[in-house]
TrEMBL record:
Keywords: Capsid protein, Virion. It comes from the Bacteria. GO terms for molecular function: formylglycine-generating oxidase activity. Residues 16-274 form the Sulfatase-modifying factor enzyme-like domain. InterPro entries: CTDL_fold (IPR016187), Sulfatase_Mod_Factor_Kinase (IPR051043), SUMF_dom (IPR005532), SUMF_sf (IPR042095). This is Spore coat protein CotH. Pfam families: FGE-sulfatase.
Length: 279
């Protein structure tokens, strides 16, 4: 059973995050920034998708925990952001810091739980076609498969994440698609990065300006888990997390790191996407 903190009593509607629609098409993704003709030099195609305006907050995560537990899902408790490497009090700032200390497993299982509660087909399945509800005991990612036809919540691919962070078609029209950070060439107005010892902690989501699509914190605050993997020597699969954080400043939207799916840190969280049919 999960504790209910005074400001976070299970108001289930709080678990449903606001979204922005990213129109599909052909785009450039990669490490080139600056004034370029990105519309004429594309290297990937993405279908239309909805993406959450902010990183999933502790409030949203916590609001779903009791329901998820009652329906067989197993999730860690997460943290209401962090200061240095310690969890902030659950009630601080109304739980509006990004949820942190969550693994890749927590992110995809939360996505499935939210999908089921909202009556959407889950994206992440076990190898025998059942809804993935908990991490495997041995941590092996080989026990899961994806259902690409599902309209439920999932993590973004690397291409989807960078297209959204750069601002999509709106930024192409505005001529801002080549900005190095999500909504600016300079990070200060759009990204919460470390500047001194006093800034080594999260801030509530949407504390900085959004990018062209109205998305917040795609640069800074916490890094975000992606649905993008890389096989390393020895058969292990690593998953990307991108965007930089209050602990680690990045030089551009192309700066990412990767780790095993059971890894968690006080400066890693996630946001979710949904594939949109017919858009």
């Amino acid at each position: 059973m999960f504790c209910a903190f005074p400001l976070l009593v299970a108001q289930a509607e709080n678990a449903v995050p606001d979204e922005v629609v990213v129109k599909g098409g052909n785009f450039y993704v990669g490490s080139v920034f600056g004034a370029e003709d990105y519309a004429a030099h594309t290297n990937t195609s993405v279908a239309s998708f909805a993406i959450t305006k902010t990183e999933i907050t502790y409030q949203q995560y916590h609001a779903l925990l009791e329901w998820a537990d009652a329906h067989g899902y197993k999730l860690s408790g997460g943290c209401n952001g962090a200061t240095f490497e310690d969890c902030l009090p659950p009630e601080q700032d109304g739980g509006l810091h990004p949820v942190t200390n969550v693994s890749w497993w927590d992110a995809v299982i939360f996505a499935n739980a939210l999908s089921e509660r909202e009556r959407l087909p889950p994206y992440y399945l076990t190898v025998d076609g059942k809804t993935l509800k908990h991490a495997p005991d041995d941590g092996s990612e080989k026990v899961i498969r994806e259902n690409p036809q599902a309209s439920g919540y999932r993590l973004p691919t690397l291409a989807e994440w960078q297209v959204a962070a750069r601002g999509g078609k709106k930024a192409l029209t505005q001529g801002t698609y080549g900005q190095r950070y999500a909504g600016s060439e300079q990070p200060d107005s759009v990204a919460h990065f470390p500047s001194d010892s006093q800034s080594f902690g999260t801030v509530p989501v949407a504390s900085k300006r959004p990018n062209a699509l109205g998305l917040y914190d795609m640069s800074g605050n916490v890094s975000e888990w992606l649905n993008e993997s890389y096989a390393v020597e020895g058969g292990k699969t690593m998953y990307y997390f991108c965007g930089g954080s209050y602990l680690e400043r990045t030089h551009s939207l192309a700066s990412c790191d990767l780790h095993t799916p059971g890894f968690f840190m006080p400066d890693i969280g996630f946001r979710l996407v949904r594939t949109l049919d017919g858009q």
